[in-house]
Amino acid sequence: MKVITSISHISLASLLMLSAISAHANSDAFAELYQRIEIMGKEINQLRGENQILRHDLTQLKESQKRAFLALDERMNAESKNRSEDAPLRTTPETVKPIPPQRQPVQPVKRPISTQPTIVTHRPVTGVKAEYNQAYEALKQNRQAGVTAFKRFLAKYPNSPLAENAHYWIGEAWYSQRNYRQAIDSFIVVLNKYKKGRKAPDAAVKLGYSFYALKDWNMARRTFNDVLRYFPNSHAAQLAKARLDKMRSEGH
């Protein structure tokens, strides 16, 4: 009977000790779990804050691009109006120019035929043109590499006659990578700085394509209508008209 009592006491003490150890272990586990949940909560709050900042930045970017486009549109409207107002009216009929008297044909002077072959030398393309060609080749191989190369070209030759093309091809590179926001910025630069240049019609219609890709139907429609208004005889105008017809069929 004493042995049984002793064993019972030992078992009870062991159970109490195990319960204490288990409670302590559970307490540590709960404390660690709570600490992890608290850390995760802070990280989630931080991510929410960063997400709000990104949304704000994106909204600001959209507004900035719209303001830039509207300012460009207003300036082109004003210039078009000024040109129509300043154009002089013809009040006198055109005069017919008299036909000049026919001249006697001049006998060609016979020159001795040379038996020596003509040597044509081709000078290697160097300088600005060479660096532009290198950037264009880089663009054909890799769009991002082409953007970098053309930006380097513009930093070195900002006033080059090829600068217009460089800005345009940067926009094309961004567009092909579906980075439409960057493409919009590049095409607006072309239209702001080179609105009478060779790339202006193409930049204008690609600007409309970029707005279309972003589903900004109002800005896309306005851009395509501007292409028809300011570049009516260009291939870009045909593309703009086709896209406007597509938008109407889509219900935009």
Write the layout of secondary structure elements.
Layout: H1 2-86, H2 128-141, H3 143-156, H4 163-176, H5 180-193, H6 200-213, H7 217-230, H8 235-250
Helix pairs in contact: 1-5, 2-3, 3-4, 4-5, 5-6, 6-7, 6-8, 7-8
Overall average residue pLDDT: 76
CATH class of the largest domain: Mainly Alpha
Catalogue the unreliable spans: 1-9, 84-99, 117-122
Q: How would you classify the helix and strand content by structural class?
A: mainly alpha
Share in helix: over 70%
How many domains is the backbone divided into? 2
Q: Write the CATH fold name of the largest domain.
A: Serine Threonine Protein Phosphatase 5, Tetratricopeptide repeat
Give the radius of gyration.
Answer: 37 Å
| Helix count, DSSP H or I runs of 4 or more residues | 8
- The N- and C-terminal alpha carbons lie at a distance of 96 Å
**CATH-assigned homologous superfamily of the largest domain:** Tetratricopeptide repeat domain
Strand content: under 5%
In total, the number of strands is 0
Q: Characterize the main sheet.
A: none
Structure summarized in a few sentences:
The chain has 252 residues and is mostly helical.
Name its key features.
mainly alpha, disordered N terminus, 252 residues, Serine Threonine Protein Phosphatase 5, Tetratricopeptide repeat, single chain, extended, 8 helices
